[in-house]
Design a protein that fits this description.
Length: about 240
């Protein structure tokens, strides 16, 4: 969702002759290829490097997520420059590849950590958690985006002329929250009546979302480093207690 919206809201206005409908279609195909490549590549790497090391490598998606806001800012402040587009595509495809690699490595990783006899049940719980995240995640991320949208409107409201605002929208500036709630005003429309050189907050709408995703991924990588086999002494002590 963030990838699609960032492409249409940030990259397309910055490079309208390049980021067209056909480009978006090709990019969607590239995302699918990156997902498949991540599954195959990281899955093969796990056989040689070990599952735990590869899971740690998947944490590379954290800095990639954290770097996308800077790339979007670069694109918004330097329209016509192609470099931010390629950095954006490379970063997002890298994140998707890591996502696919995680699904490829996780079953065997669970089997190695918890034993093959428990891997199936634990993986089932993981899939249940993934399903819950697929339902709740988009709503949570859109909530973060809505907060950024309101912050953007508030910033622009401090810079526009109230008289010009009322002439364009037919209501006083004090009723801006009502227009936002009714979705009858956009940041692009506010930018039309803003002074020249006003910073467009559209390019920062997904910063909070991407930073949050990066923090969650980084936390998962740190937690992974604390996963280790239970010592033989602990197992013997547990068996003795259960007897």
């Amino acid at each position: 969702m963030c990838i699609r919206d960032s492409l249409t809201d940030v990259m397309s206005p910055a490079l309208p002759t390049i980021v067209t409908g056909s480009f978006a279609t090709s990019f969607v195909a590239a995302v699918s290829i990156a997902n498949l490549s991540g599954r195959l590549g990281f899955g093969a790497a796990a056989d040689h490097l070990g599952q735990k090391r590869v899971v740690a490598m998947l944490g590379l998606s954290a800095p990639l997520c954290a770097g996308i806001p800077s790339v979007c800012t670069m694109a918004g402040t330097n329209p016509g420059t192609v470099l931010p587009l390629w950095l954006f595509c490379g970063s997002t495809l890298g994140v998707v590849a890591c996502f696919g690699g995680f699904f490829a490595v996780m079953p065997s990783y669970l089997g190695k950590v918890f034993g093959p006899q428990h891997a199936g049940a634990i993986m089932g719980r993981h899939l249940t958690a993934y399903s819950a995240a697929a339902v709740a995640g988009p709503g949570l991320l859109m909530g973060l985006r809505d907060v950024s949208v309101r912050d953007g409107f508030d910033t622009l409201a401090q810079q526009v002329d109230p008289v010009v605002f009322e002439q364009k929208f037919g209501v006083p500036l004090e009723q801006l929250p009502m227009l936002i709630e009714a979705k009858s005003i956009t940041i692009a429309q506010m930018m039309e009546i803003s002074a020249a050189g006003t910073f467009d907050p559209t390019i920062t709408l997904y910063n909070t979302t991407l930073y949050s995703m990066s923090a969650v991924i980084a936390s998962a990588v740190v937690c992974n480093q604390f996963v280790h086999p239970v010592s033989r002494e602990a197992i013997q002590a547990l068996n003795s207690t259960n007897k």
